[in-house]
């Protein structure tokens, strides 16, 4: 069987296509158009999209570089959903000796394609389906209904059969098996190579020396199990290398440790030997000390035996002494002696009590003297306070008169004398001895106070009443002062408000004058604008064109009427303005074309003036190399007759160039016959 070849292709309701069929005669096609006209996009919508069904691999520059959603929904103003198809038709001849694909009765056909459904509401591709069938589009198979609406997936299944409409993976596996005859995994590698080689930047990458990288990218990916096995092996090698490194480090560390530890053990043994020698010397010293202590022990035991003998003798003497003392205590003289000792103890205790009483009396006299000093200080302080109060009586009466109170309420301040204490002399026993004489002692007595406590309390009560009344008057005065401050503040605010009112009245007067001036200027501007509108209406293209309804100009200054008139006038002149803009654009385009033509003619004129000959482009039949010694081009050997006009000259030159005779190589006569492909004329 011959291989499958492209025969036809088509796009239905995708991008800017409504329903378009392309003829790939002999498996080839030529798309002609300017840059940006959509040649590449058309090819991307056909191949390899119709053979792999991957909506994310539409763009030739890589994954997801072209959005099929945007191709379906951008500039689409139809219903809420849009359904489109892209398909290619493959053919092959069942005759093994024929490779022309002429479409005879023995040819086989297969149509592969996909359909997409885009939602205008969600702005997304909501469904897609792929199909493979032997039916031919336009020959019994139509992808649009009677109302020219593309078929949905359910309608397509009913038309070509449910087994012909496939999911993406099944579609790709069917294409791999039917068209290429390879398993599905290998087909993925072929698609990867095709996407790499169809990238428009592949030529630039080759020029930049990235051929090896391109070929590497085009190679199929390695088997994942093999990669995992190699990675595991590499990991094992890395683990072994790390184990060897760790063991080497451990060996070196152990060697260093053993050397250090041997030195340490030798030092420890030497220290232990030195300690053992010292211990032996200590044992010998202890043995000599034990011998000395043994001798001393024997001496101590002998001394102890002598001491025990002496102790027994002393205990016997003590017993005899105790018996003697007991006999003495039974005598009458001993009992009299005991009574005497008891009385001496009693006398000693009484003497101690008398000394303590005398000391207490002395302390009390000292405390009494200190109390007298305290009384004298209090009297002096009271006299000073009463004197200060007496000095404040007159100022207090003056302040009471100032506040409206009676000065007679101020009490009279009593006076206190500050005389010294009276000294009295008394005879007091100062020692407990019976033979001691009494000693004279001076005692001070405080002077008598002439002022009674009740009088001072009455003065203090009157003073408290005066202070309470003064506080009440002070609170009233503070309240009056606060009220006065509030009144002053209110008065200042009133003055400020009056000044503000005067400023506002002045500003209102100025605003009224400014408003009148602005109104006058507005009236003048409005009159000028009305005159301009009337002049504009009666001149230019508007002089012959008139609106359906008249546009009366207002006679007074009315902004609302002016806005309404402006809106109506804009609606009327909008088509005229559009036409004028189109004419202006066309004129600008003609001007640009003329400028381009003038620049070309100027360049040609400059070249002619500089003596530079114009050389026509090399023709299709021109030989690649020419020997200038054997002839010359035809256009260098002839010239136009003066009677031929410029138009005829241009026509003749174009005809000669189209026929290949303009730059034909003219040789001397006698040369071989004309060679059309070498373009040689004799």
Please summarize the sheet with the most strands. Answer: 6 strands, antiparallel
Radius of gyration: 69 Å
User: What does the oligomeric state look like here?
Assistant: single chain
Treating each run of at least 4 consecutive H or I residues as one helix, how many helices? 14
Helix content: 55-70%
| Rough outline | flat
Mean pLDDT: 80
Q: Helix/strand-derived class?
A: alpha+beta
Question: Care to count the β-strands?
Answer: 13
Ends distance: 54 Å
**Strands side by side in the biggest sheet:** 2-1-3-4-5-8
**SSE order, as H and E?**
EEHHHEEEEEHEHHHHHHEEHHEHHEE
List segments where confidence is low: pLDDT < 50 over at least 5 consecutive residues.
97-104
Percent strand equals 5-15%
Task: Describe this protein's structure.
59% of the residues lie in helices and 12% in strands. It has 14 helices and 13 strands. Strands 2-1-3-4-5-8 form a 6-stranded antiparallel beta sheet. The protein has a 3-stranded mixed beta sheet with strand order 11-12-13. A two-stranded parallel ribbon has the order 6-7. It is flat. 10% of the residues are buried.
List the helices and strands and how they pair.
Elements: E1 5-14, E2 17-23, H1 39-46, H2 49-52, H3 68-73, E3 81-93, E4 107-119, E5 124-133, E6 136-137, E7 140-141, H4 153-160, E8 165-166, H5 168-180, H6 184-197, H7 202-207, H8 211-218, H9 224-329, H10 332-403, E9 422-428, E10 439-445, H11 453-537, H12 559-609, E11 631-633, H13 634-637, H14 646-659, E12 665-667, E13 680-681
Parallel strand pairs: 6-7, 12-13
Antiparallel strand pairs: 1-2, 1-3, 3-4, 4-5, 5-8, 9-10, 11-12
